[in-house]
Structure formats: structure tokens, C-alpha cells
Amino acid sequence: MLQCRIIGKFRLDNVPLTNPVAVGDRVEVQREGSSGNEGLIKKILPRENFVVRQSPRRKHDLHLLAANIDQAVLIVTVVHPNLKPGFIDRFLLMTEPHEIPVTLVFNKGDLYSEEDVAVFFAMKAVYEKIGYRVIATSVRDKKGLDTFREILKDKTTLLSGQSGVGKSSLVNAIQPQLKLRTGDISDYSGKGQHTTTFAEMFELDFGGHIIDTPGIKTLAFNNKDAQNVAHSFREFFDLSDQCRFGASCLHRNEPGCAVREAVKKGELSELRYINYLGILEEVEDQNYWERHKEIE
After folding, report:
1. Where in the chain is the domain with CATH 1.10.40.50?
2. CB-based contact 177:204 (threshold 8 Å)
3. Is 178 helix (H, G, I), strand (E, B) or coil?
């Protein structure tokens, strides 16, 4: 293993990066130092894809979560902590531009009441209808673990989720040798406590690799504009050719909008549409300087 450093500035879409090299990147390295285990990253090779978010600490910068992945798996749960449907759509906003396949894993099924089970099936119907795979798992009951393992097999997978959803416990259940740190839900806040502090790649003994990311609290987007958001909700974009203004329609108050009409008829998810409007408003509220900060 080489301990490497990097020199120079790197950008993505003209926005500075908090981490110019991501887990999964392929690079050219020059050995240096007398120990033989040190290196200098000279070049980052072209990426097949990448997942990027707005830096949680530096709002004008971007943070690379991973690069060159085959798929992404988002771990959520209906309860403990409570489901935030908007978070799912924000996550998909990161993967959709590169057409990265995503599986939604609803974990902690052993804690679900009848009402929670109904919520799961409702969410499953929404996302399977538009092409995402959805499964349910429970580490305690050992349900869905074989399916989860099969999804990861022989793939390089970005594994993500909000703190407390049981991501590490789920991985440990199918790959005990990794012994990923697990944490409890905070009794005070009811929210998950961070157990992963940085993204790291692990090899799976049954084939494939996972890139485990820190528990994500929120997702914001300084690299998106309204059109980016509209085109990243796949079912809205597919229907936009029937809108009067075509692909330029933002599906709000435009006349002849096929998307709004489909939502009214129940043909498209109202929940997804509400989440879309919220993200759209947030992105537009970012002032011009924030989204087009001059790089010196």
C-alpha cells in the first residue's frame, strides 16, 4: 500500500473540490521517498462516472463521494429513525445524471408496525414503477440478507444512508469479517450517531467491493440549476416531450404541462412531485454568486 499525496488544484464543473481524489478513482502515481511506500499522484484518469454533493462544511465547494462505480445502494428505514422521503429523491438527484443504477433498501423491518409496513409497500410501489429496485431487510430476523448479498456480488457499490439506518450492521450481517463500527440511535435526538467518518472501500469475499460512506444528514446542491433538477426526475423528463414547452418545462405553472396533468390524474407520484418542487425552490433560492463563484 502506498501513502500518497497530491499537488495542484482540481475542479469539477468549475467548482473547487474539498477532496480532489475520491474512493474509486484511478490515478497515475510516481513513487517517492526512501521508504518505497510513498507516492505522488500525478494524474487522475478520466472517470466513468462519479457521485458528488455540495460540501456540508464549505457551501461553495463540492465533495466527491465516489467514482467509477457500478451501482449505488441507499439504506433507509421507515422507523428508528423515521423515514424522510425527500432524502431519497435528493440522493437520486446525485446518481441520475450518470444513469447509475440504484437499489433502495428499507432496513429494520422487524421494527415495523402494520402502518409502517403499509408505508413500505407504498414507497416500494412509487419507486419500482419508475425503475428503481426496492427490497426490505432485517438483520435481527435475517430477512432479505441473501437478496442484499446478491445485489452486491461482483459489483463496485456505493453504499450510503442517513445515520442510524443500520448500514454497518447490515454489511456486517453478510460479511462479518469486515467488523464495521455500528452505533445506536441517540436517546436525546432520536437521530443516528455517526459511526463512519470517511469513505472507504472494502473487498467482499463473495465478490465485489463496497464503498462505505459516512452517514449523511442532509443533501444540498450548489452544482445544480433548475433545468438539471427537472431532467433528473426520470419520469418527469420522460413525459416532458408531451409538455407544450418540451424539455425546457419546469412543470410548475407552465400552460400545457403534461407532468402536472399526470400528477393530478394520479399517474405520477404526488409525493415525488412535492419533493421535486421543494428542491427546485431551494436550488433557485441560491443566489447567482453562490452558484457561479469565481475561481481564482
Report:
1. 226-291
2. no
3. helix
What crossing angle do the helices spanning 114-129 and 85-95 adopt, rounded to 10°?
30
Which residue carries 444540498 as its cell? 220
SS3 102: strand
Mean pLDDT, all residues of the chain: 86
Global pTM exceeds 0.85? yes
Residues 6+ apart with CB under 8 A from 16: 9, 60, 61, 62, 295
Q: How far apart are CA 15 and CA 191, in angstroms?
A: 31
Higher-pLDDT residue of 290 and 139 is 139
d(C-alpha 214, C-alpha 216), whole Å: 6
Q: In the chain, which residues fall in CATH 3.40.50.300?
A: 50-212
H or E segment to which residue 126 belongs: helix 114-129
50-212: CATH topology is Rossmann fold (3.40.50)
Per the listing, cell 510513498 goes with 38
Write the DSSP assignment of 238-287 as a string of letters: HHGGGSTTGGG--SSS-TT-HHHHHHHTTSS-HHHHHHHHHHHHHHHHS-
| DSSP line for 16-74 | EBS-SS-TT--EEEEEESSSSSEEEEEEEPPPS-EEEEE-SS-TTSEEEEEES-SEEEE
Q: What H or E segment, with its residue span, contains residue 91?
A: helix 85-95
The CATH homologous superfamily to which domain 226-291 belongs is Probable gtpase engc; domain 3 (1.10.40.50)
Q: Are 159 and 210 in contact (CB under 8 A)?
A: yes
